[in-house]
Amino acid sequence: MFEILFLGTSASAPSAKRGLSAAIVNHDEYRFLIDCGEGTQRQILKSGAGFKRLTRILITHGHLDHILGLGGLMSTFMRWEAVDQLEIFGGRSALDRIHDLLYGVVLRGKKPLMSLTLREITPGIVFEADDFSVTAFSVTHRGPGCLGYIFETKPRRPFLADKADELGVPFGPVRNKLVNGNEIKLSDGRTIRPEDVLGDLVSGTKLVFVGDAGRTDNILEHCRDADGLVIESTFLNTEADMAKEFSHLTAHQAATFAKKAGVKRLFLTHLSRRYRERDVLTEAQAIFPEAKVPRDFDKFTIKRD
User: Fold this and answer.
1) Among residues 66, 108, 110, 173, which is most buried (max CB within 10 A)?
2) pTM
3) Distance set, CA 305 to CA 198, 204, 220, 256 (Å)
4) Which domains does the chain possess?
5) How far is CA 43 from the centre of its chain?
6) Which one of the listed residues 35, 65, 227, 296 is annotated catalytic?
7) Is there a catalytic annotation at residue 65?
8) pLDDT over 90, % of the chain
9) In contact, 293 and 281? CB cutoff 8 Å
């Protein structure tokens, strides 16, 4: 299960009600900030999320509306020592720009108070824990090194409590042993194996986050069957030519893609100030009825049924 908190949902420039691109994805004790547009640190505070354990930042690409907030965030961390380490993941071109911002403007020869790592990544697994992973994949936008991210829990075999009850498996640690793949011996001498009480393998929860994108045909397999897809919707279809010119998507294109990919839930973000929210929603829901247009501070739980 993943939880996503939208901190900034506007495109290019903020509006009165929408900040610039940023979101937090939570899974158990792990937290990831995706992009860090101008004003993100205030959005984090206003949302009540706070900075605790916010030590990993995933950057989709190096455009200013996705990275400028890193300067303010680093400045705050230098004053208040809010975290003891910070990892910023991104493509080479994005990290070059972030390096200039942090070391040339914010630090200017000073050493950061925390351990600061700019981690260049390419498509593939970029983070892995016991029960989930984060994978980067290439996205087409203006410039090289643009990335999307897949958050996915590992497949599991569900514990069949009714079956365990029938076999007389007591509650407590012995059931955890079975879940972890170990056989147990009951007090009456019977041996219970994991396969006696575990169901068929079930795919994990899959959340896909796509930043700015000019095309979708080359990311279809990465997004297929996702339980949640976050993707940009900068334009309406009446300005599809302009969307193509600037390598962005329309609400119609994003919804059509979500339907083709078989995703369960669609979240449209990166909205231009030129459009009303309800017009974006109307265009998308005509194709994908469950489409949503999150507002800043909206929070959603993503899990596989």
Assistant:
1) 66
2) 0.89
3) 17, 10, 22, 23
4) 2-156+201-302 (3.60.15.10), 161-197 (no CATH)
5) 17
6) 65
7) yes
8) 80
9) yes
